Amino acid sequence: MDKLIINGGKPLLGTVGISGAKNSAVALIPAALLADGPVVIENLPRIQDVAIYYELLKELGADVLFEDDWMEIDGRPMKPIVMPNGRVKKLRASYYLWGALLAKFGEAHVGLPGGCDLGPRPTDLHMKGFEALGATVENKNGVMSIRARNGRLKGARIYLDLVSVGATINIMLAASKAEGVTIIENAAREPEIVDVATLLNNMGADIKGAGTDMIRISGVDRLHGCRHTIIPDRIEAGTYMIAAAATNGNVLVENVIPKHLEAVSAKLREIGAEVRELDDAIQVIGRGRYRASDVKTSPYPGFPTDLQQPITTLLALAQGCSIVTDNIYSSRFRHVEELRRMGASIKVEGRSAVIEGGRKLNGGKVVASDLRAGAALFIAGLATEGTTELEGLEHIDRGYENFVGKLQKLGADIQRISLPQSEHHQR
Length: 427
Ligand code: UD1
Fold this sequence. Notes:
The mean pLDDT is 95. By secondary structure, this protein is of the alpha/beta class. It is built from 13 helices and 24 strands.
């Protein structure tokens, strides 16, 4: 277990390169298993979630070569095994094995996923989708056993009651090799969904409309190998943009698709930062004296829930009262107590954080309870004069490639030190 010592109060200055998108990577890897040949995925982020997926693929018996930021995946030697617990509990996105194995073998027996604790995270829509495609679903002590009747799924029209990234991708995976046409209505429109559809189409699938709320999948018999480069991580980019603003810095965030960050750029401008959009980069210049603003998260292209926690830190530094409402995860507020320890005045009311901004933060000892809470807290530490000690880095490692190195390159005074087992998370 490690902890981060942050001597904050210095502006972040310079250039930061953004890695491949985590939420694409963890869906593209299982998607690659559907091909009857090797698939190469490039621009993988070097993060724990990808490392765990690599181990999952080996457990499943796939041939995998994993070097630096690319993986060659060949699912041909795989057998349909039961994956009850263990690694599937270590990340949320192991749920994509349901759709991938169901498409490949006509059956999947995989435990319920783990991931960040953001309150209830049901998977009923995934199951509803599989059932609509003609599968039977049984929960055997937490292992979901999903089987296609007669061995192959059948296309169907599926209306999602809620916009869900996970259910949209899982249904797309399952339907890609089903018999006939599947239509997903009220589909999620996240760029990561387009990325997965692009890979599947390059493997020979027939998917139209990804990126809109209606996706049409004509099932095919076989998929083949190909090469794919992952899109940039808009959440990692947004995190550095918010950090630049919070530290009154000047940061060029490189290798991004500015269109994917429109909601974030607009909100930062409203709060009072300068944001310049270039072709494949965004420059953020912090000006201090920020204004309060209300934030409501919603599915893409709205403001992402994954940046709700980081923007709360920035609003704690702005003058006036802001209300941050998370319409996706009602209890994604475990960072609030830690920010309060650092001197912020924030209270949680229902699914909102009410922030009395403009207080001076004071550093202190804090613990990241989940991935984006970790981002909110390192931003707070960087923006605060004084020393912040941050634990719970294992959560941050799951989703941010080399965040310590990237922040140090921007001039942050931070150090990662190893903690003896007995000392960590003492609260
Ligand atoms: C994905 C992302 C996560 C992001 C979230 C919302 C991955 C691995 N994770 O998570 O980083 O925060 O999208 O953008 O890509 N819901 C149901 N039933 C379901 C499925 C979802 O009620 O079967 C609800 C969820 O509780 C949540 C909302 O729908 O309130 C959206 O969830 P969803 O988009 O599915 O999120 P995840 O796929 O878990």
